[in-house]
Each structure stands twice: as structure tokens, then as C-alpha cells.
């Protein structure tokens, strides 16, 4: 059994706990939240043995094999630093930190650690998205020249939604960090290419909302972002996400190559067209997909965590770190943050941002 502690009662419960509770070798023994009272409430409701007063108490527990940091974004650096110093295995929610400099500091610590320290970019383990990577690397599409990827949800379209830290820039809220980090990481995972330029756009969509006291409050984060990314070898990528859609939840992508195309959406799943087959539509069969995902009973983001959780737990219990070769690590977090910062800089200044090894982020939170 792998003994697990979860920091955070939002994503920590919805994604992590709800996945771990169905795995034979996972034992969630502790949880902490924004208060001891909240932790106790969730512990009682979910039959978790220990409710901790804060993240330090949880991380300091003996016989804890894995710490899951799922707190709001602004706390990631502080909590991760403490966890690494405590010599515990860690999975950290994205984005790893809010500033590149913080991720660089974590890297210097992680490089000296013999523990598992990974970022929760679970899409890297999704069978459909791994199949897309396999097809790209096998050269079946030929030279890739264009990728379009889009995600949308309706969670912020309700003007009367409860105020949350996700609406505040200083807290690390907004769709750019929430979903943009996933999309950017996935694109880099697929292509393994250097990014050259970034042109970004962001929109708050609904600029004012009521806080918990009924007062009108300014929303300081974006509910929509888009980015045009130019990679080496003349590959153009468009990625976008909105959490203020009015229709339905969507996740789709199209990958165009000189010899073929891949198309994915939640209804049709993975479809291919190959020039040697005269452009005939082909449904790509993919093994290992859960029934929940096949039937769209769970989001692709929450649903993908089970594919990540299984090798993560096995790696901890058996020491086979090769199972995590596809995992996003701190070096990826640094590169992802460069792109995310460049999207915001481009959107705020209305210009194309050139990225290279000497790029310095000017983003302030």
C-alpha cells in the first residue's frame, strides 16, 4: 500500500481522492485544507484517518509515501519547497509555480533529491493523446505543419457564480494558468521542438461579479485566452480555452501533416485521414481507455488522472521510475511557464514575443 496525503480540498477531493479510493494499492491517510475545520469535515465525509491543521503538519507525518499538493496556485512554491526539504515523494498541481524564478529554485532542490517530484499534467498519460504522439513520432503524418487545440467549459458563464480565488490574478487564477498550462505542456510533449515566437490574447469576458458579501468586485483574471505559437521547423500551433462558454464542454484538436491528419473530439474520439488511403476517414482504435471516458461520464482532465496514478503508485512501491518517463517534471514546468508568461506579455502589450534561451519574463503577480 502507498500511504498518501492530500493538501487541498478542491481538486484534491474531486480528482485525486476520487481516483485513489478506487485503486487497491492506494491508501489516503491524511488531508489538509484552508482550515483545520474544513479538513476535519472532508476527512469525516470521506473516511480519511487524519485531518491536519496545515500543510506542514501533513508533510511531516511519518510513513507518508506520497504528498499531493493541490492547493491554490499561489501556494505551490511554498508547499513544494517544504515537501522537497522533507524528502517526500511529491506530485504537484500545475502550474508548478507562479514565477519562473520559483521553478528554477525548486529545480536546484529537486536535482539533489532522490525522490519522485512530478507535475500533474495527466493528459500525457491519456491513451488517446499518447496514441497521437505515437502516430506523430512514427512519421505517419509526415512533416507536421499545423496544430489547433481548443478546450471549453461553462463553469464561469454563470454571472451569479460564487466568488472564488480563480477570479483573482494575485491568487494565480484564470484560464491561462488553469487550462493553458495543460495545453502548452501537451503540445510540447507531442512535438519536442523549440518554440520561437508567441502571440497571445486574453479576455476577462465578465468583468464584474458579486463577492460573498454581495459587493460588486472587479475580476482580474482572464476567462478566455488564445495563443499563436510558432515552433521550429515552421510548425504553427493555435491553442485556446474558455471557461465562459454557453454551449457545452469541449476538448478537441486537429493535427495536420503532409501525409495525414488527426482529429479528436469528445464525441468521435480519435479519427485519422492518410493520403495513401486516399483521404478515407479512419477511426483509430485505442486500448486501455476507461468506460467512463469512452462514455464521456467524466471530463478528459479528471478522467486522465487514473492513467497517471497507476504508474505513479507502482513507481513509488517498486522503485521503477521508468514508468514515469512521460511525466512532466520541473524542467518542463520552467519551459511551460516561459510560454504562459509570454502569452500574457503579448496580450498586454499587443506584440509578438520572441522566445529563446535568454528570454526574461517581466510578468508581475
Q: What are the SSEs and their pairings?
A:
Blueprint lengths: L1 E6 L3 H10 L5 E7 L3 H10 L4 E3 L2 H5 L6 E4 L6 H10 L4 E3 L7 H11 L6 E3 L7 H11 L6 E9 L22 H4 L1 H12 L3 E9 L4 E3 L5 E3 L5 E8 L3 E8 L7 E8 L2 E6 L3 E6 L6 E3 L7 H4 L5 H19 L11 H20 L3 E2 L11
Parallel strand pairs: 1-2, 1-4, 2-3, 4-5, 5-6, 7-12
Antiparallel strand pairs: 7-13, 8-11, 8-17, 9-10, 11-12, 13-14, 14-15, 15-16
Q: What would you say this structure looks like, in words?
A:
- This protein is α/β, with parallel strands linked by helices and 365 residues long.
- The chain has 2 domains: 2-119, NAD(P)-binding Rossmann-like Domain (Rossmann fold, 3-Layer(aba) Sandwich), CATH 3.40.50.720; 123-327 and 332-349, Dihydrodipicolinate Reductase, domain 2.
- It contains 11 helices and 17 strands.
- The strands form 3 sheets. A 9-stranded mixed β-sheet has the order 16-15-14-13-7-12-11-8-17. A 6-stranded parallel β-sheet has the order 3-2-1-4-5-6, sandwiched between helices. Strands 9-10 form a two-stranded antiparallel ribbon.
- Helix 1 packs across helix 10, helix 4 (76-85) runs parallel beside helix 5 and helix 5 runs antiparallel to helix 11.
- The two termini are 40 Å apart.
- 44% of the residues are buried.
- The mean pLDDT is 95.
**SSE string:** EHEHEHEHEHEHEHHEEEEEEEEEHHHE
- Spatial order of strands in the largest sheet: 16-15-14-13-7-12-11-8-17
CATH-defined topology of the largest domain: Dihydrodipicolinate Reductase, domain 2
CATH level-four homologous superfamily name of the largest domain? Dihydrodipicolinate Reductase, domain 2
Share of helix among residues?
25-40%
What is the CATH-assigned architecture of the largest domain?
2-Layer Sandwich
Number of strands: 17
Class computed from helices, strands and strand pairing: alpha/beta
The number of helices is 11
Binned strand content: 15-25%
Largest sheet: 9 strands, mixed
Amino acid at each position: 500500500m502507498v500511504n498518501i496525503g492530500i493538501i487541498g480540498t478542491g481538486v484534491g477531493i474531486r480528482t485525486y481522492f476520487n481516483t485513489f479510493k478506487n485503486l487497491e494499492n492506494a491508501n489516503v491517510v491524511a488531508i489538509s485544507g484552508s482550515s483545520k475545520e474544513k479538513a476535519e469535515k472532508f476527512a469525516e465525509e470521506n473516511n480519511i484517518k487524519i485531518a491536519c491543521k496545515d500543510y506542514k503538519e501533513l508533510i511531516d507525518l511519518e510513513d507518508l509515501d506520497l504528498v499531493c499538493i493541490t492547493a491554490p496556485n499561489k501556494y505551490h512554491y511554498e508547499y513544494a519547497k517544504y515537501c522537497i526539504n522533507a524528502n517526500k515523494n511529491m506530485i504537484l498541481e500545475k502550474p508548478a509555480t507562479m514565477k519562473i524564478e520559483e521553478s528554477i529554485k525548486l529545480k536546484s532542490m529537486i536535482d539533489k533529491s532522490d525522490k519522485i517530484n512530478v507535475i500533474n499534467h495527466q493528459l500525457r498519460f491519456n491513451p488517446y493523446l499518447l496514441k497521437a504522439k505515437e502516430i506523430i513520432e512514427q512519421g505517419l503524418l509526415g512533416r507536421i505543419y499545423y496544430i489547433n487545440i481548443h478546450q471549453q467549459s461553462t463553469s464561469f458563464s454563470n454571472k451569479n457564480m460564487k466568488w472564488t480565488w480563480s477570479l483573482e490574478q494575485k491568487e494565480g487564477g484564470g484560464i491561462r494558468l488553469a487550462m493553458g498550462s495543460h495545453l502548452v505542456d501537451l503540445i510540447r510533449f507531442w512535438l519536442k521542438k523549440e518554440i520561437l515566437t508567441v502571440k497571445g490574447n486574453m479576455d476577462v469576458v465578465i468583468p464584474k461579479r458579486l463577492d460573498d458579501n454581495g459587493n460588486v468586485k472587479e475580476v482580474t483574471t482572464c476567462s478566455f485566452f488564445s495563443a499563436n505559437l510558432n515552433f521550429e521547423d515552421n510548425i504553427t500551433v493555435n491553442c485556446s480555452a474558455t471557461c465562459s462558454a454557453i454551449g457545452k464542454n469541449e476538448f478537441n484538436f486537429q493535427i495536420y501533416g503532409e501525409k495525414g491528419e488527426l482529429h479528436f473530439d469528445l464525441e468521435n474520439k480519435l479519427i485519422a485521414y492518410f493520403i495513401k488511403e486516399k483521404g478515407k476517414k479512419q477511426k483509430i482504435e485505442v486500448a486501455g481507455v476507461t468506460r467512463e471516458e469512452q462514455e464521456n461520464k467524466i471530463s478528459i482532465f479528471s478522467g486522465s488522472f487514473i492513467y497517471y496514478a497507476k504508474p505513479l503508485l507502482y513507481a513509488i512501491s517498486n522503485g521503477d521510475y521508468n514508468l514515469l518517463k512521460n511525466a512532466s517534471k520541473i524542467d518542463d514546468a520552467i519551459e511551460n511557464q516561459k510560454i504562459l508568461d509570454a502569452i500574457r506579455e503579448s496580450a498586454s502589450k499587443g506584440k509578438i514575443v520572441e522566445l529563446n534561451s535568454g528570454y526574461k519574463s517581466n510578468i508581475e503577480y
